[in-house]
Write a structure and sequence with these properties.
The protein is built from eight helices and no strands. With 226 residues, it is an all-alpha fold. The radius of gyration is 18 Å and the shape is globular.
Length: 226
C-alpha cells in the first residue's frame, strides 16, 4: 500500500510542476523566435512533463494516472491565469473546456506511460503481461516482445510523431518544429528503451500509435473550430 503522505507530496510536486509549466508556456511563446515558439506552446511538451513527473515519482499505475492529470491541469491553470492577469488575454470557455478534455485524456495516459517506463522490469518468460505486472505478452524466445516500459516509451514516441506530422502537413511556416519532433519520435525508443529488441518493438509501435495520435489531433482541431 502506498503511504498517504508520499501520495500527497507527489500530488503537490505534480501541481507545482504543472503551474510552472503553464506559466513558462505563456511567457516563452511570446519570446521565442519563429518556429520555436510552437514548441513552447506544444501539447507534446506538456505530456513529456506528465511522463517525466510520474517516471521520477514512481507510484502505482493508478496514482501515476492521477498525477499525470494533476500535472496537465496545473499547466492549464498556470497558462490561463498568467494569460489573464499578466498578459491581459482572455480565452473562451469552450476553448478551455476542450483543453481540459485533452488534459483528462492525455494526463492519465502519459502519467501511466511514465510510471510504466520507470519500472524498467526485466522481461519475464511466463504468464501474461497483465498478470505479471509488466512482463511479456510473448515467450522469451520470440523476436519482438511487449512490456510496460516498452509501451510507455512507444506512447511518448507516438505523440511526438503525431504532432510532428501535423506541423509538417497542416501548419504553414512550422516545418522546422515538425521535423524536430519527428526526429525525437524516432530517437525516443532508441535512447529510452533498455534492449535492442525493446528499441525495435518501440519503433514498430510508432506507426499505429502515431496514427492514433493524429486522429486525436484532428478531433481537437474539430472541437476548437466548432
Amino acid at each position: 500500500m502506498t503511504d498517504r503522505s508520499r501520495v500527497v507530496r507527489a500530488a503537490v510536486v505534480a501541481l507545482v510542476v504543472g503551474l510552472v509549466l503553464g506559466f513558462l508556456t505563456q511567457y516563452l511563446q511570446g519570446h521565442l523566435p519563429g518556429n520555436w515558439n510552437t514548441l513552447a506552446n506544444s501539447g507534446v511538451v506538456w505530456v513529456v512533463f506528465a511522463f517525466a513527473v510520474t517516471a521520477v515519482l514512481r507510484l502505482s499505475t493508478g496514482w501515476s494516472a492521477l498525477l499525470g492529470f494533476i500535472t496537465l491541469f496545473g499547466a492549464l491553470a498556470g497558462y490561463y491565469v498568467s494569460a489573464r492577469f499578466i498578459e491581459d488575454v482572455t480565452s473562451s470557455v469552450s476553448t478551455m473546456a476542450v483543453w481540459l478534455l485533452a488534459a483528462i485524456v492525455g494526463g492519465p495516459v502519459f502519467g501511466v506511460a511514465g510510471g510504466w517506463w520507470s519500472e524498467g522490469a526485466a522481461v519475464r518468460s511466463t504468464g501474461s503481461w497483465w498478470s505479471t505486472g509488466g512482463g511479456s505478452l510473448r515467450s522469451e524466445g520470440r523476436w519482438l516482445q511487449l512490456s510496460r516500459p516498452v509501451i510507455g516509451v512507444a506512447l511518448l514516441s507516438g505523440v511526438f510523431l503525431a504532432e510532428g506530422i501535423y506541423l509538417l502537413w497542416q501548419v504553414e511556416n512550422k516545418h522546422a518544429s515538425g521535423r524536430v519532433e519527428v526526429v525525437l519520435a524516432i530517437l525516443a525508443p532508441i535512447v529510452l528503451a533498455r534492449t535492442t529488441r525493446d528499441r525495435l518493438t518501440g519503433l514498430l509501435l510508432l506507426i499505429p500509435l502515431g496514427l492514433l495520435g493524429m486522429a486525436f489531433y484532428r478531433l481537437l482541431n474539430a472541437l476548437l473550430a466548432a
